Description:
The complex is a heterodimer.
Chain A: H1 11-16, E1 20-24, E2 27-32, H2 37-46, E3 48-52, E4 57-63, H3 68-75, E5 91-97, E6 103-111, E7 116-120, H4 125-136, E8 140-144, E9 148-154, H5 158-165, E10 177-182, E11 185-190, E12 199-205, H6 209-217, E13 222-224, H7 227-236, H8 278-287, E14 291-298, E15 309-311, E16 319-329, E17 334-342, E18 351-356, E19 359-366
Parallel strand pairs in A: 3-13
Antiparallel strand pairs in A: 1-2, 3-9, 4-7, 4-8, 5-6, 6-7, 9-12, 10-11, 11-12, 14-17, 14-19, 15-16, 15-18, 16-17, 18-19
Chain B: E1 2-5, E2 10-15, E3 18-23, H1 25-31, E4 34-39, E5 45-46, E6 51-57, E7 61-65, E8 70-75, H2 78-81, H3 85-88, E9 97-100, H4 113-120
Antiparallel strand pairs in B: 1-2, 2-3, 3-9, 4-6, 5-8, 6-7, 8-9
Amino acid sequence: MNQPLLRTPLYDLHIELGARMVPFAGYDMPVQYPAGVMAEHLHTRAKAGLFDVSHMGQVRIRPKSGRNTDAARALETLVPADIVALRPGRQRYALFTTPDGGISDDLMVANMGEWLLLVVNAACKQADFAHVHAALAQTCTVEMLDGRALMALQGPAAEAALASLNPRAAGMRFMDVVEMELAGVACIISRSGYTGEDGYEIGMASGDALTVARALLACPDVAPAGLGARDSLRLEAGLCLYGSDIDLTTTPVEAALEWSIQKSRKPGGVRAGGYPGAAIVADQLADGTTRRRVGLRAEGRAPVRGGTDLFADEAGAQPVGRVTSGAFGPSAGGPVAMGYVAADHAGVGTRLFAAVRGRLLPVQVSALPFVAPTFKR
Amino acid sequence: MTVYYTKEHEWLRVEGDVAVVGITAHAANELGELVFAEARDPGTTVEQGDSVAVVESVKAASDIYAPVTGDVLAFNDALTDDAALVNRDPEGEGWIVRMTVADAAQLEGLLDHATYIALVG
């Protein structure tokens, strides 16, 4: 494991901004800037944070027939989301499922008119590419877009900042995807993100990333934010982190992600099933599951971290689950967490006990998200 | 009164057989803004190197190791509602625990200020 860490096209900018760099999914990434995780988190909720997410994978699927519906139909053999009905210029959240109903990654799928754009997790991108290529190569040209960068501009001031570079940004709705120029650079922009805030994700050729980043950072309300703030923001927003909150052992229904399976793909729908593990997922949609992903709020001040065991009783005799992500939520004003608990203990308001450093601390099953989203629908 | 430091970025201010323990400005800066702190209960005997307290940032929990063997006397209650006091005044009001020094000989293995500063550059 002595492979040198990869760098994004914004590496030099991170160093210039004083970032603390950490290894993440094989990349040397900024975990925080001098302002710190707390300040970057709060700034993103109050104004706008700029995140470098160029480590994420971008995959282009181009139908050999020239008809994008063919690419959509092909991709539907791998994901339970409705891709056929996804209109040009729109994006949707999806899951790669496994034959036993697990999740091998979560991703965004955008209909670019003549092709599909997938954005996948950095740690999974090689495996995802191989998976898609193996399944779709007959009907589609599948390419990893290695030469592209991606950044996220998130927060209530994101619209004004981006509109100052291109007024068209203001007219976009949540999950719209538009090709437009920023600072003379051709970009693919979606109105989406991973913070629960209104905002945009902006892709461009790697060589142009610095131009766009500098133009955005020159906006008065925009400040850089690192992976640390990204994690606490997404946790408050109730969004899953692949590898922690969802993985090969969790199903879409256990993970409370059935909203990402549209009616057309559910039993009785016009294109029901047809993705790996569909029969298992169908059974779980009908009958429920023995465990469920829930939000958890600690009653005290001590953060309850990922890996913490949960019990039904203060004595710790009856284990009911485990925390998968936990942090102090700067905007929630206290510890917030997610985890899997037995279905009969998953109701909002259920009191559970978390084993933290040998003590059992009371936590409550809580509705997700912890912080109300501000998407521009 | 003498102040000692550890390679684990703690300081301890020793008066007689009692030490006040905290983390250095360098450590506080590295950890980022703290949101929670707690210590072992008063009366608990800790061995040198045992976890005597925990401080937590948004992202992570970090153990504070007992720089010497002794009994926990008190936790700095001001940190209960304001753990970030450690960031604002790490080597003063942001102390973390007060404990006894069971074996003064252990102090000889700790660092003085100049050595610690050289260590963290």
